[in-house]
Amino acid sequence: MNNILGSEKKGNVAVLMPGGAPEVLDAHPNAYVLQLRHRKGFIKVALENGSPLVPVFSFGENEIHKQYPNPRGSLLRKVQDFIQSIFEIPPALFYGTGFLFDFGPFPYSKPITVVVGSPIPVRKTENPSIEDIDHLHSVYIDAITDLYYAHKQKYVPKSTLTIV
Fold first, then answer.
1. Taking CA atoms, which of 52, 101, 110, 149 is between 20 and 30 Å from 140?
2. What residues make up the domain containing 70?
3. Model pLDDT for residues 43-94, shown as the tens digit of each residue
4. Quick one: pLDDT band at residue 8, thresholds 50, 70, 90?
């Protein structure tokens, strides 16, 4: 990220999904669980490079497949978490539709709408303090939350947002 965003690289853009692959195991229709509370490395990189953060939210991603119930603490989830800890790939057991049946490996035909928020300006700070990082992280989480609630009714009105 620093190589892409470094000061000698004006005009470059980096796209990062801070929740990463682990969010897959929490992806269920009408439920958005974002793993952001403890993800602060991208905030530090933004501060070090003075790169604005642009909040982006995709509505409908969790509607194109269904996943077998795997609440935290269940035996299935414990097995999934164990496998993910070894291979760093979340072993989601998902399903969708098929060619001839209502069950299969293909995604349901549902719209996915990506909403882009206003950029959050970031002042370049070569050695950001924990307070700097925590403050910008809080601003970013507020921006993602505001973006979700500003558009939720239009795209996935029955959905919930949880940030862990």
1. 110
2. 2-163
3. 999 999 999 999 999 999 999 999 999 999 999 999 999 999 999 899 999 9
4. low
Q: Give the 3-state secondary structure of residue 153.
A: helix
Q: What is the CA radius of gyration of the chain?
A: 18
3-state secondary structure of 163: strand
Name the domain count of the chain.
1
Q: Are 76 and 70 in contact (CB under 8 A)?
A: yes
pLDDT tens string 98-127? 988 889 999 999 999 999 999 999 999 999
Q: Which two tokens stand for residue 22?
A: 């682990």
Among candidate residues 136, 14, 22, 139, the one with its CA nearest the CA of residue 87: 22
Dmax (CA) of the chain:
58
DSSP secondary structure letters along 41-67 = HHHHHHHHHTPPB--EEEESGGGS-EE
Closest CA to 114 of 38, 15, 11: 15
How far from the centroid of its chain's Cα atoms is residue 153's Cα? 19
Rounded distance between C-alpha atoms, residue 77 and residue 6, angstroms: 40
